[in-house]
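Pasting as-is:
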Amino acid sequence: MLKQILAKLPKKSSKSNSEDSSYGSISSNNLVDVINGFQFINSCNAITSRLNAVKRMSSSIFPAGTEMLEPHISFKDIPNSDKQNLFVSKLNFCSLVYDFSDPEKQSAEKGLKRQILVELIEFLASDSAKFSEQAIAAMCTMCANNLFREFPPKYTTRRVRGETEADEPLFDVAWSHLQLIYDILLRFLSYNSLDAKIAKKYVDNCFILKLLDLFDSEDPRERDCLKAILHRVYGKFMVHRPFIRMAVANIIYRFVYETDHHNGIAELLEIFGSVISGFALPLKKEHKLFLTKALIPLHKPKSVGIYHHQLTYCIVQFVEKEPKLAGIVIEGMLKCWPVSNSQKQLMFLSELEELMEMISLEEFERIMVPIFRRIRFCLRSSHFQVSERAHLFWNNDSILGLIMKNRQVIMPLIFPALEQNSQNHWNRAVLNLTENLKKMFSEMDSELLLECQDKFEKENSNLSLVTERRKLTWERLENDAGLQPAANNISTRAESSPCVVVC
């Protein structure tokens, strides 16, 4: 009975043995062809596995009963009713991320993904796209997977950037791929048919924070794309505007008070220049706090030259809306005015002149003394460019009008610096500007000029007397110290008469 049962079982095929024997009989001439065939099969298998992963992702997005299309199909080969499904399928395929540090790695998959990204751009450019909630979710997922990433750490040994120079930009090796995704995201946000009420569920606070983190990219091309995208997000989603302003302020706080390094401050300020111009009057307390707590402290970092033009534009926008803010800004600048950095002084002088053109007479009279004390310091600077720039304030008609109305206070502050320049400055151009300025003062109020001249001469004579008395006192101290024996220095020190040093 047992033999009958065993006889009915199927016998083991000897196909594997024959295959092994045939594989062993392959000639050496055909071995290369076989290996190439295996490589092609492995590449196809890798693409097939990626497509299977896309199918699994698509099955979680498409509702049951919806036909899922292969992502490699062209939009031209299907009817309009299926284009929405194909659009989502292509987005899901492009959500897969590859390593671009090695150009030879997964080159077939990268090529297919690039081809599909180009097709998505062409589809969005045709203005025939309709964005359902599934399409919006797939779009945000694809952009997040590809764009949001960690940047390499900034090493402390890196050369510190100067006031006006920047490090040589580092270009991302995956930029040819990232550029297409940025283009897709920008076209998506620019679509008029995009429903902001639905999209805001996916373009949420977390999405915006990660988008802002990308502004620290070393690649200037990426920061330019981000600038356009953030501008679209700010204009499209009004509900997110307060959060964006708060997040940018936090980036500035971290830059000023903690890290002292950020690559995208200039781009963020450029965006906020247009944002500030749209603020309604009267300005909200939140907006004034952004000026005083974020923008004014941006004058402190050493790298202010990289973004100073954008910073000045933002501050001017505030002052144009509310001129009283000019005094607050100038006071903040005077607190962090550079002393030994000539290039930074030149930037501050230019910004100060622009603000003084817009300041009211009442606000000017409140802060004119500290302003012209600082200008006096710049007038007598040994750096000829700083001194020249300070002299040019009197060529501005608006500032000259303010000076003439308050010459009784300003001229005595400025005159000593002009006299010192006439006597001691080394640069011929500065000497000529000083003489022209003294001539202008003489024409403006000759009597006041003579009073300032007399006061300066008296102060000089008093200073000479004090200097001479100090010199005689030190000579007497040196003589007394030289006459006494070294052994008796300690015993006679207490008995020596006190000497008054006049300084």
